[in-house]
């Protein structure tokens, strides 16, 4: 995990080449992403620039940019390539690589193939840029786990950065956009999509139920993400997703003789997530750390948080507040890497509004759309709120092999199922995959716990107090001007207006505002993003009636139970 900043000057239409010292100054705005080392390179022929802020996780003494076989071949990389050793042993065995850093394989793969489609050979997450004998290439991982932006300045130069704040001054008057996930860019080809899985088409979700495959690919996804030369831990909210990741990681880390540190946060010791996390930590046997933040601290930190987050989306800000404070405490403990549960709700339709999906087809379409836009929501939140304190978050649910297995599964198996007590249960198929009789992964009360969105689970009064504070800061007269002041993504509450106002002060360009996508639930009247706004939150422990339940659920649940793994 690091900060990458690059400028492709081959597209420059006029003016002098961008100054390397100025580029380094811009890159330092994201120094929090990589406080361990700083490095840079400029191609003498093209003027293309690479600047790197490094957080050392693999090969702790390695500095980027990393050189290929000659000094004119260089790469900077943010992320992790989990199959780097396999690539060294196969595709790259003819080369003499000089480090054990996973990033090094990228420049040598390009040296061998000279094609952006090398991205399909990488099993991991990444935002990288490389210079190679006059070539320039930048790329982003398949679903955008790593944050990445590009901008164009008045002279036609292309800028690339993990964080938008490095681009605002130079490109805000022309163009700033998110670098599209699953694409690479060269000045000759423009943006090219390299990632085209079959699950992009909802009609391909026809795979038969295979709980063992889900379990196997999930375990493999967690294990590969334990790759680190730096201390590693787990984020544990006490919800299903983070608890499963923590349980799988804990088993493997103990087998390797590693100490397992787990971390949770709430507004006090009685917060729903804190209570649940405490139970999970005891069950799986971690060294557990609880932290608390006050409502006043959260409110006081809003401006700093929005500067790091680069978003005015209400959901993202609500949920990023506890994650920001938790990451700060984790870093104080000397931990640089943590595993987390992002992505499961999007893949399996875990948000409570999915209970209201009108059909299997619409359910599947919505899950795909949520996964494809994770880079604007949960991936953005997890990356930026943790990297504010130089902590890397890894997300096993967004592993390529696991996504292929889970998303192509027939949606009838993924929709909420009616339990014996009359309750509709989301993510039933995922719960069933790990509902083993021998060596259980989680206690039943956690395995079948109702969904709580992170901003709710840390303590319900966090959101309620935040809404009240924002409402007190925005007058009715000011709020009446919302559509005039902010015609794009017009805020429809005083809370949203307050967040947007701060964002605009920090990032005043229209281009910056256009990079934000608001998180809005479907199929419910109340558009507040809190899970509590869904009627399902209060009624899911009772019989909702057949009109609110997937018609296939009784048969589907029986079939799922019959396929349940035994260990």
Automatic annotation (TrEMBL):
Which Enzyme Commission number(s) are listed? 6.3.5.4
MF terms from GO for this chain are: asparagine synthase (glutamine-hydrolyzing) activity; ATP binding
**UniProt enzyme class:** ligase
Active site residues according to the UniProt entry: 2 (for gatase activity)
- Which keywords does UniProt give here? Amino-acid biosynthesis, Asparagine biosynthesis, ATP-binding, Glutamine amidotransferase, Ligase, Nucleotide-binding
Supply the InterPro entries for this chain. Answer: Asn_synth_AEB, Asn_synthase, Asn_Synthetase, AsnB_N, GATase_2_dom, Ntn_hydrolases_N, Rossmann-like_a/b/a_fold
GO biological process terms held by the UniProt record: L-asparagine biosynthetic process
Q: SUPFAM superfamilies annotated for this entry?
A: Adenine nucleotide alpha hydrolases-like, N-terminal nucleophile aminohydrolases (Ntn hydrolases)
The record's listing under CDD domains reads: Asn_synthase_B_C, AsnB
Describe the reaction catalysed, as an equation.
L-aspartate + L-glutamine + ATP + H2O = L-asparagine + L-glutamate + AMP + diphosphate + H(+)
Query: What pathway does the UniProt record associate with this protein?
Result: Amino-acid biosynthesis; L-asparagine biosynthesis; L-asparagine from L-aspartate (L-Gln route): step 1/1
GO cellular component annotations, sorted alphabetically?
Answer: cytosol
Q: Where is this site: Important for beta-aspartyl-AMP intermediate formation?
A: 342
Ligand binding (L-glutamine): 102
Binding positions for ATP per the UniProt entry: 235, 265, 340-341
Please state what the protein is called. Answer: Asparagine synthetase [glutamine-hydrolyzing]
